[in-house]
Amino acid sequence: MTLTAQQLADLMPDATQLESDEPEMESSLHYLQLALLVSCLEWLWRDRHDFFIGANMTIYYSRQQLKNRDFRGPDFFLVKDTQKRPRKSWVVWEEDGKYPDLIIELLSDSTANVDRTVKKDLYQNRFRTQEYFWFSPDDLEFAGFRLVQGHYEPIPPNSEGLRPSEVLGLYLGIKDEKLRYFTPDGQLVPTPEEAALQAQALAEQEKQRAERLEAQLRALGVNLDEI
């Protein structure tokens, strides 16, 4: 019996319910680095609702891939111009054919060779991902590539060792042995905890400035209680 295209589609499982099938990360260093990348960008873009961040999540990009169980999942990926909502995995054909705009792989002894070769070729030739970075939390190897006329060209660092990301509108660089985001003027993008501490420090500075001004005015004989 010959099945129509619709009948074949009806036989497929609900792709939106596909679970991620990624292995555990190599070490606690890798977990901490991944959490840092996610939390800092989520905080910076906290008022935006047009992006999705995937962390150690499988990308399903073809039905043949499902049959072959040839699963590929970046450690970190960003898709822009999409709905910000929870997902169990990223299913390309359920997301208007969208692939990641940016991918970051965290190198480890067991994955580095694949990340530098097989995955780089996949992201370049199949995903057409605009920017691809890799970073090793162990030895701090850091590289970046941008898609230029269908091929990845290295992204050179600036004088501060930072590599620009056109996708993010930010720079990526190493600080305290961690891969971090930096603003175009070179300022570190903080974690939510760092941002809270900065706000607290700023509030304390403002309080001290107000107290000094009040003391100066009283020394000049100004009765502040009557103002």
Automatic annotation (TrEMBL):
- Transmembrane stretches in the record are none
Where does the source fall among the domains of life? Bacteria
Residue stretches making up the Putative restriction endonuclease domain = 28-168
Q: Which keywords has UniProt assigned to this entry?
A: Coiled coil
Q: Report which residue ranges the record marks as coiled coil.
A: 196-223
Q: State the name under which the record lists this protein.
A: Putative restriction endonuclease domain-containing protein
Give the organism, scientific name: Gloeothece citriformis (strain PCC 7424) (Cyanothece sp. (strain PCC 7424))
